Amino acid sequence: MNAEISTPTSTPSAELTQRLSSTPRGARLARRLTAQQLQAWGFPHDSDLNDTAQHVVAELAANAVTHGRVPGRDFELRLSLSPDEETLRIEVSDARGDRELRFAVDEPDGERGRGLVLVTLLAAAWGVTQRAVGKTVWAELPLGPGRHGS
């Protein structure tokens, strides 16, 4: 497992922050918003980074609305490019800090708990940061080659 606990140490060069309803519709909108924002930043919809980021956001947002939901409270999506534009940081914050993240590797036939395994496989690093109210689950993806215009 490559989960870490840390905080960003530099100011992002580009950032998007959006609050969304803690519903399945909100989770779907988070994925669509990610695809559109990465397109605007020069990573086409059909690029590996855009596709990977959409998968990571889908998993983290689904967890936020399924396990981190507090009635009447939204979740927050934050996307940021590092100043050197080598890393995309994805953060999904929810209002519940009282539940630990779990892997379902001990339940091979289970229907839940595989999302974090996927995040572990796709992200260069990921972790959890506790907040005053709730938690933020973050993942970092290397930008690599393939940016439109690079």
How would you characterize this protein structure?
This protein is an alpha+beta fold and 150 residues long. The chain has helices at residues 24-40, 48-67, 115-122, and strands at residues 3-4, 14-20, 75-81, 87-94, 125-130, 135-142. Helix 1 (24-40) packs antiparallel against helix 2 and helix 2 (48-67) runs antiparallel to helix 3 (115-122). The longest helix is centred in the middle third of the chain and has 20 residues, at 48-67. Residues 1-10 have low confidence and may be disordered.
Summarize the structure.
The chain has 150 residues and is α+β, with helices and mostly antiparallel strands.
| Total count of strands | 6
Q: What value does the Rg take, in angstroms?
A: 15 Å
Give me the strand/helix succession.
EEHHEEHEE
Count of separate DSSP helical elements: 3
The whole-number mean of residue pLDDT values reads: 82
Helix content percent band: 25-40%
